[in-house]
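Re: the 506-residue chain
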Amino acid sequence: MNIRRTEKDEIRGRSKSDVHRIRRKKRDDKMKTETRLEADSIGTMEVPAEAYYGVQALRAKQNFPITGTKLHPVFIRNLAQIKKAAAITNNNAGLLPEDKADAIVRACDEVIAGKLAEEFIVDAIQGGAGTSANMNMNEVIANRAGEILGCPKGSYKMVHPNDHVNMAQSTNDVIPTAGKLTVLDLLAPLEKVLVRLEKELAKKAEEFDDVITMGRTQLQDAVPIRLGQVFHGYASMVSRDRKRIEKAHREMYTVNLGGTAVGTAINVSDSYFYKIVPNLEKITGYPLKQAEDLFDATENLDGFVAVSGVVKTCAVDLSKMCNDLRLMSSGPKTGFGEINLPAKQNGSSIMPGKVNPVIPEVVSQVAFHIVGHDTTITMAAEAGQLELNAFEPVVFCNLFESITTLEKAVDTLSVNCITGITANRKHCKDLMESSAGIATALCPHIGYKASATIAKTAVKTGKSVRELVLEQGIMTEKELEEVLDPYLMTEVGEERKEDEARRKAC
């Protein structure tokens, strides 16, 4: 005799996680087996009965199995904020009934809170300038709002994806606006970690201000430099990158929302046209403004290229700095060995005790990644035609990833590398004193030719510049002490004036 097991029997004695897993599997199985029929302009299609997405989102999922990467969650949140602002604005204009507007707003709030995330099924890279993403959002909100009003999913009798959720909107003004809001949201944490990195570098500049080492140009000995000056230079570079990002940040405040398909604001009421951006501003907290030229704002993506450019510049700068850190820490016995990077993990599966500069290495790899993304974004923006650029999805997919990966790279660089750097002070001093490069300081006193001869002899014989000058009686020890003073050689501007004044006073 067959005994049918109930769910109660199945979950008896199980842990909470097992119960959730069993119920989730049952729900998923139900969704796979039970469907509803939905129609669009292409035809009809079976959609999982319990899904909040609809036929257009499902078609897009089938048409674009490209990256396996879904829409960025911050982008989804911003799309929902736009839909919320549109519902409020259309209701205030007397075009969207109160009950429908309230239900749409409730559904939007749920999406904004991170609910229904699994219902956004389209790939990040898709054809159609983002129409699939826009319709995925419209369908989810319509079905959830309809459900709130007592309608079954897929009926769209109370709330329709196009007529109500997408009222007075087009993919062509919604998607770029959501893209700009997302860039703003993602740049904020990047700016925060850059501020921290700048501070950590400034701390190291102060800590290493008394450490004299040999500067190098083209990897050859040049003239003395303070290690603190090196790190101060890095801090200044990061500060400059941060300011560039702040400027690009501001460019994202101008949106084309209200322009609809090509910038003519077709199907938009006067009330909506003038109120949609101020209402979105209230929801997002950003000082948004509607573009003065909606045609330009709809067809051109140069603002995103500009943001990508400054993100790329920052990544390139950081990679250069990380190359320096790798060189300065190389060895530890057969390389430069001027600084020590914190040991973070074993460096080899075969060489015991080996420790590699893994944090600087990962930052450089992120930089290479971002440079590739920037090229993609540049070409996508260039490939726009007439009144619309159809390649916004690939622009956003790459730009969002560039910003987030750079943020994470900067964070790990600060926390796992810069804060723990130490200087090999004696080794740095020895390198400076043994280098022929300090002969440069002799030039104002004995001329370039004589100084070059001293430098060549030092390299050939292994004797120091100081020894040779004294041996040849070119200068007295007292004179040489002043000329080859490493601090005097590394002082700039007011520093040097103050030091010379102190010397004269003594």
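The first helix runs from residue 7 to 11.
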